[in-house]
Design a protein that fits this description.
Elements: E1 2-4, E2 18-26, E3 29-36, E4 44-46, H1 50-62, H2 65-72, H3 78-93, H4 99-129, E5 132-145, H5 149-160, E6 166-170, E7 174-180, H6 181-189, E8 196-209, H7 220-230, E9 235-241, E10 244-250, H8 254-281
Antiparallel strand pairs: 1-4, 2-3, 5-7, 5-8, 6-7, 8-10, 9-10
Helix pairs in contact: 1-3, 1-4, 3-4, 4-8
Length: about 280
């Protein structure tokens, strides 16, 4: 919304009545403005502009990754989607919005998304196509309280020499240590039970080793997580270390997760080859 504040006094007098006008949606912010109004001054709250409708539609759709994917793949009926979005868009902008206005905003969004996603997708596919996948089984995840993490470090340093697998991540209240099952047993024996928050044994690790460019390319880990989620693979733990992405899954899901990732890596390689040929012939 925007306010026509013509003839509004720069400094209100003591006799100027004060009225609180609620601005429902203005420049991405929900807030209230105290407006000082002279008795003879008319303040007109003008209707929401098309640009604010477009911005609202953009923010609503951007908050739904699945909807974004459907739009980018051109499998959406814009008229039906506009009808679905009409209640929430109307609520945000503060008045009834026509379905056609929302539809026009969706079409503009689709064009914008197509332009952004082409470059984004090529960069992500290039990283994925040049990645390799390693699998480790018999993995345990141990979560301990942060207060004992530093005292546990000498033990971890000692165990790391002979451990088949080790990964460590510290957060504010806890620290997570990923070890092979045998090393995990020895670690747990030397930690007070009251300082152990959670233990998960017999899990499996997938290590995706990527080119160094992954450090500067947004969306790679999100893409990998998304394709696993779409295929009902639950990620128990995930962390990124330089060029390695470590994904811990249930041992029951490891074969499926590995096959899915390899399928998408092969598809990325083929997609880039087709794209390069198309560019060559242009």
């Amino acid at each position: 919304m925007y306010l026509d504040l013509l003839n509004m006094p720069a400094q209100p007098s003591l006799h100027t009545p004060t009225r609180l006008i609620e601005v429902v949606y203005f420049r991405n912010t929900l807030f209230q403005l105290p407006i000082h109004i002279l008795p003879a001054t008319m303040i007109i709250v003008t209707g929401v502009t098309m640009s604010s409708i477009s911005q609202t539609v953009y923010e609503v759709v951007s908050g739904d990754p699945i909807l974004q994917q459907c739009i980018s793949r051109e499998i959406v009926n814009f008229t039906k989607l506009a009808r679905k979005l009409k209640p929430i868009v109307s609520q945000i902008v503060g008045h009834d919005v026509a379905v056609e206005s929302i539809k026009m905003s969706l079409i503009r969004y689709a064009y914008r998304l197509a332009e952004e996603r082409y470059t984004f997708s090529r960069e992500v596919l290039a990283i994925l196509a040049n990645s390799s996948v390693e699998v480790r089984t018999g993995i345990a995840i141990i979560t301990i309280r942060s207060k004992v993490f530093h005292t546990a470090m000498p033990l971890l340093t000692k165990l790391a020499i002979r451990s088949r697998f080790i990964a460590i991540m510290q957060s504010i209240t806890t620290a997570t240590i990923v070890l092979d099952n045998d090393t995990a047993d020895e670690f747990i024996k030397n930690i007070d039970n009251s300082d152990i928050v959670y233990v998960q044994k017999d899990q499996a690790a997938i290590v995706v080793v990527s080119p160094e460019d992954i450090m500067y390319t947004p969306g790679v880990i999100a893409y990998v997580s998304n394709i696993l989620a779409q295929n009902s693979v639950n990620i128990i733990h995930i962390e990124s270390c330089y060029t390695d992405t470590i994904i811990i899954v249930s041992k029951n899901d490891i074969q499926k997760a590995f096959n899915i990732l390899m399928k998408y890596i092969d598809a990325a390689k083929k997609s880039l080859k087709i794209g390069n040929r198309s560019t060559h012939y242009l």
